[in-house]
Design brief:
By secondary structure, the chain is an all-alpha fold. 72% of the residues lie in helices and 0% in strands.
Length: 74
């Protein structure tokens, strides 16, 4: 829980620095367009990922079952 908060706050700080740099170099309007498009890209990645279509994560991404000793005979 604490680790995810640290990561969230760190990325927010980095995002603020990037947004400020983009706004300084290219202007505020261009920076807002870049940030809006990156937010849409993040949503698109989540929507079109296989996890979004999965109904039950325990069966969809379960490790393969081990073979029984009787099934391994040659």
């Amino acid at each position: 829980m604490v680790t995810s908060r640290v990561i969230a706050y760190a990325t927010a700080a980095v995002g603020a620095l990037v947004a400020g740099g983009l706004g300084t170099v290219f202007g505020v309007r261009a920076a807002l367009w870049v940030l809006a498009l990156s937010a849409l890209a993040a949503v698109a990645v989540q929507v079109f990922s296989p996890i979004a279509r999965s109904r039950d994560l325990s069966t969809a991404y379960a490790p393969p079952a081990k073979a029984s000793p009787s099934a391994v005979r040659r």
